Amino acid sequence: MKVLLVFAHPEPRSLTGALRDVAVRELEAQGHGVRVSDLYADGWKSTVDRADFPSLAPDARLKVPAASRADFETGTLTDDVRVEHEKLLWADALILQFPLWWFTMPAILKGWVDRVFAYGFAYGVGEHSDRRWGDRYGEGTFAGKRAMLIVTAGGWQPHYAARGVNGPIDDLLFPINHGILYYPGYDVLPPFVVYSADRLDEAGFEPVAERLRERMRTLATTLPIPYRRQNGGDYLIPSGELRPGLEGADASGFALHLDGAVKIRNPL
């Protein structure tokens, strides 16, 4: 496999940085090709503004989706974005690695998504009609590819459990897993989450590292999170609402969008 790891942490000597090195070494040991986009080291520009759309007339109002589509279709998006497009098309699997800051990804990584997931590339593709509503949620540019998150969290694991004060980790990561990765077609694997990251000492690091190595060894075979496909019949088109009767006896909230009774929780 060919794997792109997008890394978002300002300190390479951090736990997140050490786990990145573990993941890359194990993937390479398994014979996979690996490329890393180190956003902080690369000085990634995280804000979307007029400079992102070279073909936009100076006196034109900036409408980001329209400008994104125009420059994508003409191949005039900025060089840094087009380089990331090439990496994503090259890769069979995408790993986003980041610390959980204020219950989400760091701003620089969100900015990578905002700029790289352009209209016509990651969204706004496919037929929109009374039968389909675009190639998204299980279909799209990245269909057939895999993706997963490697996340370090400062809180204790019980804080992210079903009754935890921080909210279930599956719910906190749903906007990323479902809304950013599954939306353009990736098969999304359960995340690898390290809890109490700031309290992890040298003795505790190796067991965590070995669990990560095992996840890298099974990157091609781990079952993805069973999200429902938008155009597979579970949703009404064009409203996008789940069909009545499919919610299941115990499902509510984000869990409504899991297919059937099988619910894969974070295994690590």
TrEMBL record:
Q: Which InterPro entries is this protein grouped with?
A: Flavodoxin_fold (IPR003680), Flavoprotein-like_sf (IPR029039), NAD(P)H_dehydrogenase_qn (IPR051545)
Stated name of the protein: NAD(P)H dehydrogenase
Q: Which residues form the Flavodoxin-like fold domain?
A: 1-214
Does the keyword section mention Oxidoreductase?
yes
Which keywords, in A-to-Z order, does the entry hold?
A: Oxidoreductase
Annotated GO molecular function terms are: NAD(P)H dehydrogenase (quinone) activity
Q: Name one GO cellular component term.
A: cytosol
Q: Which family does it belong to?
A: Belongs to the NAD(P)H dehydrogenase (quinone) family.
